[in-house]
Amino acid sequence: MSGLRYVYAICRPFDAALQAQVTGVDGAPPGQLSHHGLIAVVGTVPEQDFAEEPLRRHLEDLDWLSATARAHQAVIDALTAVTTPLPLRLATVFRDDAGVRAMMEERENSFHRTLDRLDGRVEWGVKIHAEAEAARPAQEAQKAASGRDYLRQRRQRNKAHEEMWESAEKFAHRLHGLLCENAEDARLHAPQNSALSRESGRNVLNASYLVPRSESEAFAELVEGVKGDESALRVELTGPWAAYSFAGLEADDEAADGAVGEAGL
Amino acid sequence: MTVVERREVALVDLLDRLLAGGVVITGDLTLRIADVDLVRIDLNALISSVNEQVPSPFEDLL
């Protein structure tokens, strides 16, 4: 058999059936591999696409990456409806079931601890975008009458920009602090590149928050509530996600806990 | 969950989680393709190739 095993997630055994229409990466419906009280949710993928070399090439193909990421996400989403999955990094592939079992056995304890920690929790994403254009006073569109006018206008424009970024940062720190108080854990992602996100303005906060399902509604309302606070800033909420950003096993935790927000609070 | 209407998830939000989050498993049996650095390098190459075509809007700010 020339198929490899693609592992989506590790979870505890669950009774409910996955939605029938969920197809995984490469169109193959995911199955379950049970070992020592844990379940690996796996699919079979062709070696010609997922062996090291072809995968490396594929990852540079945005269309392929996009289709694969969405298929992976669809499986994790379906799992999230019935249990709390521990999602694996995209494109985690093993040669065969024995390889998957060996991995599960080797990490058994840490899987159990992480599943305990994430049980009943979801991840919410919050982003803030600052609109550069909104900071520019309208009269700047006027043509400068002289060189001196031009320099003055330029200084004013730079000052307006500086003040705008300063207030955007302050707002981001404040919101991050507030959300941290209402979440069990938080992770800061690198700001998103506007060319990739196709969002206008600069991304000044890109964070994930770990929130118990039962408190999700209140958390979402908290974010919705600050949306109109600053006219030049756009606050965006995404989720609920499976706890991707918090799935790192214990060893990762300290390194991933970087506190961007703290310095300015 | 009725608070937020689910929209199509943006690819960039998905990649933040799928390429930087999730459990990383490395070892002989994984063919070493789950290696985080490998995936990051490829994504960075992708991002910088996109960047070259789109000048930064902040270039005039010193």
Task: Summarize the helices and strands and which ones pair or pack.
The complex is a heterodimer of chains A (265) and B (62).
Chain A: E1 3-11, E2 31-35, E3 38-46, H1 47-50, H2 52-58, H3 62-82, E4 86-87, E5 93-94, H4 97-106, H5 108-118, E6 121-130, H6 147-181, E7 185-188, H7 194-197, E8 202-212, H8 216-225, E9 233-241, H9 250-256
Antiparallel strand pairs in A: 1-3, 1-4, 1-5, 2-3, 6-8, 6-9, 7-8
Chain B: H1 11-18, H2 36-51
Summarize it.
With 265 residues, chain A is α+β, with helices and mostly antiparallel strands. Chain A has helices at residues 47-50, 52-58, 62-82, 97-106, 108-118, 147-181, 194-197, 216-225, 250-256; strands spanning 3-11, 31-35, 38-46, 86-87, 93-94, 121-130, 185-188, 202-212, 233-241. The radius of gyration of chain A is 23 Å and the shape is elongated.
Your description of this structure?
The complex is a heterodimer of chains A (265) and B (62). Chain A is an alpha+beta fold and 265 residues long. Chain A folds into 2 domains: 116 residues, no CATH class; 144 residues, no CATH class. Helix content of chain A is 41%, strand content 23%. In chain A, the strands form 2 sheets. In chain A, strands 1, 2, 3, 4 and 5 form a 5-stranded antiparallel beta sheet that branches. The longest helix of chain A is centred in the middle third of the chain and has 35 residues. Chain A is elongated and about 75 Å long. The C terminus of chain A is likely disordered. With 62 residues, chain B is mainly alpha-helical. Chain B has a domain of 41 residues. Chain B is built from 2 helices and no strands. The interface between A and B is large, with 68 and 44 residues.
